[in-house]
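Narrative summary of target 7.
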Amino acid sequence: MDTNANYNLAQNPSELFDVYPAPPSTSHHNTIVSPGWGKEHYPHPKATGEMKERGQVHKDGDWHRSVQAWIVQPESQNNAARVLLQRRSPYKDTHPNQLDVSCAGHVNAGDDILDTMMRELEEELGGNGIIQKMYSSDDVERARAFTVASAVKGETEQYGKFICREYQEVFILWWKGKMETNMFAPLVAEEVSGFEILDGRELIKRMRRGDAELVPRCTEYIDALAEAIGCG
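Modeled conformation, tokenized:
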């Protein structure tokens, strides 16, 4: 098995990202972007005009953009929700093997947020066509919930230390009918190892206590997610 090929399929270290201005101060790291941040950041951050390769961005800690979608099945009988999570593959350059948001991806230089979200949904969840059947681009556009300025550090055996500073555009997509993990199929197995479904309240509890199996999220992110899916 060519392990290096697997890592290259999981991500392209040379893909270009737009660089964005840092938040107004370090106290704004790991908080939700709000009107008080000013026009440079709200409602959406504006690119500086500089572009850098993915690998260098994660080494230097430059601010860039990503999209994230939570797929949620409401359960009206007990006022709860079931939430789809993906298991990140062991070949990812950040947070390998951890449980993560249903679908996520970086925004490449010059790309549109909505187009990126639609592409990532197809690549990570809809290789069998189910996403096209469930959601239109209008559905996804209406699902935009909040933007978080996320700043985390970590280290992987393959890539070494990383500094990931992202403006994360978060979407909440409601699933119609019964949701099962076998409904979803990634186009590239090296990106996603599998899927799990968790009770929404249990997910929020695990996120709040910093469960090591989950990709870490800041308090404001968790609070906003809990409110959005009715599991506060």
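The chain has a mean pLDDT of 94.
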